[in-house]
Specification:
Elements (H helix, E strand, L loop, with lengths): L47 H16 L4 H7 L7 H8 L8 H8 L2 H13 L1 H11 L3 H12 L8 E2 H11 L3 H17 L8 E2 L12 H7 L17 H13 L9 E3 L8 E3 L8 E3 L1 H9 L3 H14 L18 H13 L13 H13 L10 H6 L2
Antiparallel strand pairs: 1-2, 3-5, 4-5
């Protein structure tokens, strides 16, 4: 493949919901979800133009080998999802510092859960590594970043999401290919229409394959006759991820890289954040980027893998942010705000939407303009 697995989808925004989930600024409010956990805008809505598009699409699908029976079952109880279009329109290509990225991608919780998952599936991971040559901890780390070790796989019907985006037309040709590939998954018997669920953009399973990548790389590792990446059992997903990396050039026994000067292998040196740590990276670093074409993602996978295997945190320090705050400053700011009743949703040192909302509320409470911006002055005022 010439493109990374999801190069046409926005990948990095959710940290562990790389392309899935309904949370964030567009997420549901309490009390608005249905029994499946979907907000109202991710449930089928009447749209005559969409219905006409589906009618026309059916003939194109039959021409590509999809049976009329599969089409009838696949489109039963599906429909136009307005929230999918809203999310697609509102994707923001924002930049997050590597320090912030790693604070989330290799958080204490994600490392602990990763070590537990690695231990639980040790035999499966060892067998996957033996077959495909991809380090077990790398596969585990991708699992951790993509779906938080299977906890956040997405619950949006893939036929509805991909058909909605194909009909919408902004990337119609791409999503029609995903829709056809999803129908072929059903036709092959790998899963049922009821189980074919994923992110709002159609990424599926424990390690978030889009349908065309599934068709190209998914494997039946446990020998049950199905390439099942949707079940609670992650075996096929983990093996499919290793197969993907292997077929994209992974070199067995070679590290991804490491922090420069920390027993890192020889390789090219990169410094993604000015003034921050430097990393020596190998060809396997570039293979990880075929999964998601981002230096931060590849470092996140590699570093999380090292932590899962027992390694320690990044040793070099990061510079203060644009507000003059270090990570320790930001952690203290979050802790002090929360202690005063302005909940930041955690104290990881990442000033995201929840922290900014808390800052604005606190600023308003003391008569300041509610900008939501952190500062040393704000931190001192909370002492």
């Amino acid at each position: 493949m010439n493109l990374s697995r999801r190069s046409t989808l926005l990948g990095l925004g959710a940290f562990g919901l790389s392309a899935c989930g309904t949370g964030g600024t567009l997420g549901p409010r309490a009390g608005t979800t249905d029994a499946a956990g979907l907000p109202a805008d991710l449930r089928p809505a009447a749209n005559p133009a969409y219905d006409a598009w589906v009618t026309n699409f059916r003939s194109r699908a039959v021409g590509q080998g999809i049976s009329s029976n599969v089409l009838a079952v696949a489109f039963r109880n599906t429909g136009y999802l307005p929230g999918v279009v809203k999310r697609d329109r509102n994707q923001t290509e924002f930049s997050r510092t590597l320090e912030d990225y790693l604070a989330i991608a290799a958080s204490d919780e994600r490392v602990a859960k990763g070590r537990a998952a690695f231990s639980r599936y040790r035999n499966t991971l060892a067998a996957v590594e033996a077959r495909y040559g991809v380090a077990a901890e790398i596969v585990t780390a991708i699992w951790g970043l993509e779906s938080f070790y299977g906890e956040r796989r997405g619950n949006v019907p893939v036929i509805s999401s991909t058909s909605t985006l194909a009909f919408d037309g902004r990337r119609g040709a791409f999503f029609e290919k995903q829709l056809v590939a999803a129908l072929k998954i059903l036709q092959s018997g790998d899963t049922t229409a009821a189980n074919l669920k994923g992110s709002w953009a159609g990424a599926m399973g424990h390690t978030q394959f889009i349908p065309t990548s599934y068709q190209a790389f998914a494997v039946d590792f446990n020998g049950d006759g199905r390439r099942d990446i949707w079940s609670e059992n992650p075996e096929d997903s983990l093996a499919s991820t290793a197969a993907y990396l292997s077929r994209n050039g992974w070199t067995k026994g070679r590290k991804w890289g490491g922090e420069f000067g920390n027993n890192a292998p020889s390789g090219r040196m990169i410094q993604p954040q000015a003034g921050g740590p430097r990393f020596a990276v190998t060809s396997n670093f570039n293979v990880i980027k075929r999964y998601n074409n981002s230096d931060s993602y590849a470092i996140g996978v590699g570093h999380l893998a090292d932590r899962i295997a027992g390694g320690g945190p990044i040793r070099a320090s990061f510079p203060p942010d644009k507000y003059g705050l270090t990570k320790d400053d930001r952690v203290r700011l979050q802790q002090r705000l929360t202690a005063k009743g302005f909940d930041t949703g955690g104290s990881d040192g990442v000033v995201g939407p929840n922290s900014r909302k808390a800052i604005s509320a606190y600023q308003g409470s003391i008569g300041q303009q509610p900008t939501g911006d952190p500062s040393q002055e704000l931190l001192r005022s909370l002492e």
